[in-house]
Design goal:
The chain is an alpha+beta fold. Among the domains are: 17-110, Zinc/RING finger domain, C3HC4 (zinc finger) (Herpes Virus-1, 2-Layer Sandwich), CATH 3.30.40.10; 128-204, no CATH class; 452-615, no CATH class; 621-729, Hect, E3 ligase catalytic domain (Hect, E3 ligase catalytic fold, 2-Layer Sandwich), CATH 3.30.2410.10. It is 39% helix and 10% strand. The chain is built from 28 helices and 22 strands. The strands form 10 sheets. It has a 4-stranded mixed sheet. Strands 1-2 form a two-stranded antiparallel ribbon. A hairpin with an 8-residue loop joins strand 3 (78-79) and strand 4 (88-89). The longest helix is centred in the middle third of the chain and has 21 residues, at 430-450. Keywords: Ligase, Metal-binding, Nucleus, Transferase, Ubl conjugation pathway, Zinc, Zinc-finger.
């Protein structure tokens, strides 16, 4: 470079380095912009970006007579603009010495002694925070390498991260990554020396960046496509014309594959239909679907599967879903595989009055409704998960460290399908690796998190303050693990306090903690003494005795009236429960953003509070009955064995069996509770000619034996389930 004399080619630090052969010039763009004795006197297409060649040569000649105050070499073309300051330096030398260069207005430069600094209250400095761009830790100190957002109280950034973001986003998209403020944020960053180029964002300049949006989806996604020419075959104005989902447009079906006689008929894919089912809209459309589910020759086509009806609240009528002999003939050819069945071939059979007439409180009904809503939302998020697998090798005796190692491995991606292998297991079957092992892993992981030092409290837990965990970024990993567990079919934590949940949803500045959130015995005792002081003199005496504690918490205030105790208590609670853990909270929030979980939590707080703040409801015979779909090859009006199955569930619930309802669920699915997202595939029951029951965890299928008497059925169930689980435990 003719101005700084360096050969470095680093566009992020020195601007683009260009060589102009016709002028015999090589120059860094930033060296040219910041030089004190040159201005853009030409048009944009004249000279070099508006700088005339004659002016550049004059500036080079002027700088050759000036010595740099940093490297002591000639060519110092940049000078400090502070009055009476005569320091001069090269642009790279100024960067090295932490000078400030303002890429705006007159392109002023300030030396290391006169440079502008950010000012903020002393109580906001100290400690560590997380850079919201690179997610690494940053010291909350007024330093050159660290910048604070002018619009967000707790947003800190690395200078280098901000500069990279500014160069990528350009002036139109560069804004605060926390609150999206643009004007105030850009003004402060320009003042502190961040270069924001006047260009469009880099992602907007990519050639054909949005080409995929112009393509129409042409693929049949029905499980059994009837077209002999393949799923991608599309013939307009025929039965092989592909109809796209009217809601999302990202799924398709041949008209014939879904028994549609006309292109004008509306069609929804399974995912969209399941979402609309929660509003009751599916029930209204069900009658219409019956009329179109049969062909003219009387045969039934396998359509896009209708979603199973949302679980009804306790106390309402329960139904088993049975299949016609024709459909079950197809089932028997491939037992346990989850197939689609038209709604027109379903008949229902009511449960016994003992189950259907059980009363339930309004609170449980409301909670059940919220959990169903959360389940539908999680199923929507699961669409991000692809078929590529990531294997996690887990040591059950050291669950945390092995999980941490797996989540931090280079090839781990939350959008990949997770496969879990326990390294300390003697027998590893493919079934266990695919289903039960993953369920067990997430259950152990959530249990560990609940009892880990990252959280404090008894039942409803808040985040604790663990400096070592902050340093190792463990709060971020914990949030990431919870998000992955929810979307990948694992259990929910169920131990969040309302205060922690509200901090995640509404922000810590909008949450008022309660005395129950305080775990520290001494802090709770002091707070209670202040809260229940019955006279001004008593209150003043307590404040005097606890002065050191109040001063350390920043809660010292004059007490002139008894009602001041309420403000004082509130200050203590906010400091101890919220302000103290702001850094862990922000890190935890960033982790929960994995797969878009935090965004959904904030959009649907009522639904997610039901699974994050409450444990799963205790299993009942009613719940298990509603969970399983019965498939039978017998006459549709006589389901052989169904009565035995219902009676057995009632015996288990009443304690007249050697097993529990949880044992039954583990036997079939590998999970002791129903995950928030539900099971995939949905649990089914088949009555087959076999001696003992079999739990196929790969397909969540319970194969039950046909028995002559109920006693035989019950004994076989008890014997098989007890011994299977005992062997697994050993």
């Amino acid at each position: 470079c003719v101005l700084c004399g360096r050969t470095d080619d680093c566009p992020e630090k020195y601007g683009e380095k260009k060589t102009y052969v016709e002028y015999d010039l090589t120059v860094h763009y930033y060296c040219l912009l910041m030089s004190s004795g040159i201005w853009q006197r030409g048009e944009e297409d004249e000279g070099i970006d508006g700088f005339l060649i004659t002016d550049i040569r004059k500036e080079v000649n002027r700088a050759s007579k000036l010595k740099c105050n940093i490297c002591k070499k000639k060519g110092a073309s940049i000078g400090c603009v502070a009055p009476k300051c005569k320091r001069g330096y090269h642009f790279p030398c100024g960067i090295q010495k932490e000078c400030i260069f303002q890429f705006m207005e007159d392109f002023r430069s300030y030396c290391w002694e006169h440079k502008p600094v950010q000012k903020f209250p002393r109580n906001e400095s100290g400690g560590t925070s997380q850079c919201t761009i690179c997610l690494d830790f940053v010291e909350q100190l007024p330093a050159y390498a660290v910048l604070k957002s002018p619009c967000c109280k707790n947003a800190w950034f690395h200078r280098e991260c901000l500069q990279y973001q500014a160069l990528s986003a350009g002036i139109f998209f560069f804004r605060c990554s926390i609150c999206n403020n643009k004007d105030k944020f850009q003004k402060e960053m320009l003042r502190m020396g961040i270069h924001i180029p006047e260009k469009d964002a880099s992602w907007e300049l990519e050639e054909n960046a949005y080409q995929d949006l112009l393509q129409c989806y042409q693929h049949c996604d029905i499980r059994r496509c009837l077209c002999k020419k393949g799923r991608d075959y599309h013939q307009p104005d025929s039965k092989w014309e592909i109809k796209r989902c009217q809601c999302c447009g990202s799924r398709g079906t041949h008209l014939a594959c879904s028994s549609m006689r006309s292109w004008e008929q509306n069609w929804e894919c399974m995912e969209c239909r399941s979402i609309s089912a929660k509003s009751g809209a599916y029930r209204k459309r069900k009658k219409c679907s019956l009329a179109t589910s049969e062909n003219t020759d009387g045969t039934t086509l396998l359509e896009e599967p209708s979603p199973k009806s949302p679980r009804q609240s306790p106390g309402s009528q329960r139904n088993f879903v049975l299949q016609s002999p024709k459909i079950l003939c197809q089932i028997n050819s491939s037992p346990c595989l989850p197939l689609e069945h038209p709604a027109s071939n379903r008949v229902t059979m009511s449960l016994s009055p003992l189950m259907s007439n059980r009363s339930c409180s309004m609170r449980k009904k409301h909670l059940g409704k919220q959990r169903r809503e959360a389940s539908n939302i999680l199923k929507e998020l699961k669409l991000q998960v692809n078929t590529k697998t990531t294997r996690l090798n887990i040591d059950a005796e050291n669950i945390w460290h092995s999980a941490l190692k797996g989540f931090r491995q280079r090839n781990f991606s939350p959008t990949n399908t997770i496969e879990v292998m326990f390294t300390n297991c003697k027998s590893r079957s493919k079934t266990d690796a695919s289903a039960a092992s993953k369920q067990r892993f997430f259950q152990l992981l959530m249990l560990h998190l609940q009892n880990s030092p990252l959280f404090e409290g008894s039942s409803g837990k808040n985040l604790s303050l663990d400096f070592q965990a902050v340093k190792e970024n463990l709060y971020f990993e914990a949030g990431k693990m919870i998000a992955v567990s929810l979307v990948h079919g694992g259990p929910s934590p169920g131990f969040f306090s309302k205060t922690l949940f509200n901090c995640l949803v509404y922000g810590p500045e909008n949450v008022k903690p309660s005395l129950e959130d305080v775990v520290d015995v001494d802090v709770a005792k002091t707070t209670k003494m202040i809260k229940y002081a019955n006279s001004l003199s008593t209150l003043q005496s307590i404040v005097h005795e606890c002065y050191e504690f109040l001063a350390a918490a920043g809660c010292v205030r004059p007490v002139t009236d008894l009602c001041d105790k309420d403000v004082l208590v509130n200050d203590i609670l906010i400091h101890h429960v919220i302000k103290r853990i702001l850094s862990p909270l922000e890190s935890f929030r960033q982790g929960l953003k994995t797969l878009g979980v935090l965004e959904k939590i904030q959009m649907h707080p009522d639904a997610f509070s039901s699974i994050l703040c409450y444990k799963p409801e205790r299993l009942s015979a009613e719940t298990i009955c509603d969970l399983f779909t019965i498939h039978s090859s017998s006459d549709v009006n006589k389901v052989e064995g169904a009565d035995f199955w219902m009676a057995y569930l009632q015996d288990v619930q009443s304690g007249e069996s050697l097993v529990t309802l949880e044992d039954i669920l583990i036997f079939v699915t590998g999970s002791s509770s129903i995950p928030p997202i539900g099971f995939d595939p949905e649990p089914t029951i088949k009555f087959l000619n076999r001696r003992y029951p079999v739990g196929n965890r790969l397909f969540n299928c319970l194969e039950l034996p046909k028995s002559a008497t109920y006693e035989q059925f019950k004994n076989k169930m008890d014997f098989t389930i007890r011994n299977t689980l005992r062997v697994e435990k050993e």
